[in-house]
Specification:
single chain, about 270 residues, two-stranded antiparallel ribbon, about 45% helix
């Protein structure tokens, strides 16, 4: 089961600092090789350099198509690898991100179709406390607001609304966690046809103005976080991110979800192409 990193983590992983040599050095001479860009070494540097990302750093089998800044979590993460290494993130964290699952020895197995990473709560607490440095730095917040608006806002809002929706109906959430995980253990199950396709409509049949594919991915991500016990921690981090960069929107999107969650049909149906 492909692992998607949360908004607060990906916001850092999708950041960079590309410096062309020493400040003021000018372009290289005709026989001088261009210097290798330096990647971000700190979280604040990463936020400042968020707009500089180009291309992606995943293998072709891990990212079928690069949607750029309009892509989902996987797209965001793969683009980040070109400018901020996974090893650097691991060196900053006090513990490994995952306590169980396919990601072992500091390596990510992004092609796992039937298993997913279980986050270590200690890592999540560190991420929530450290990956949003602008929370207490007004100058940094002003400096990085445009980067948030362009690179992070859409996914942050989508994941907030999806969690708000599924948390409004604990019985629905528990039922879907069980169905989703049982399907993961059954290699004969076709995901889109019988399990996850109707998650597109978690925010309503009009999708609430969000990308239906992002809604589906966010729903699955929160179901996995419910299973590994870190949903509340990540929700707190997402609230901190939105409160820092998107406070007015957050204030208008609290409280119970006003719509009914979609009901799973009795018989599997082929998904409508959207």
């Amino acid at each position: 089961m492909r692992t998607l990193l949360p908004v607060t983590l990906v916001a850092v992983l999708s950041s960079s600092l590309a410096l062309a040599g020493e400040p003021g050095a000018g372009p290289p001479g005709p026989t001088q090789a261009a210097p290798t860009p330096r990647k971000a070494a700190t979280i604040a540097e990463a936020w400042r350099a968020l707009p500089t990302i180009t291309g992606h750093g995943c293998a072709d089998e891990d990212l079928i198509f690069d949607y750029g800044a309009g892509g989902g979590m996987r797209n965001f993460f793969c683009r980040a690898l070109t400018v901020f290494s996974w090893k650097t993130l691991l060196s900053l964290a006090p513990t490994a991100p995952f306590r169980a699952g396919p990601h072992q020895g500091g390596k990510l197995k992004l092609d796992s179709e039937r298993d997913f990473g279980r986050y270590d709560a200690r890592f999540v607490r560190w991420a929530v406390d450290n990956l949003i440095p602008a929370e207490n730095d007004g100058a940094l917040r002003a400096e990085t607001q445009a980067a948030y608006d362009a690179q992070v806002r859409t996914l942050a809002r989508t994941y907030w609304e999806v969690q708000r929706a599924i948390a409004s109906n604990p019985a629905w959430r528990t039922r879907e966690v069980n169905i989703y995980l049982r399907a993961a253990d059954d290699a004969s199950v076709k995901w889109d046809a019988s399990v996850i396709w109707f998650y597109h409509d978690v925010l309503g049949t009009d999708w609430g103005g969000y990308d239906p594919n992002h809604i589906r991915s966010a729903t699955m991500w929160w179901l996995r976080r419910t299973k590994d016990g870190t949903a509340a921690l990540w929700h707190g981090g997402l609230e901190k991110l939105l409160g820092t960069y998107d406070a007015a929107w957050l204030g208008a999107h609290r409280g119970p979800w006003p719509k009914k969650l979609p009901e799973r049909p009795r018989r599997a149906q082929a998904p409508e192409y959207r």
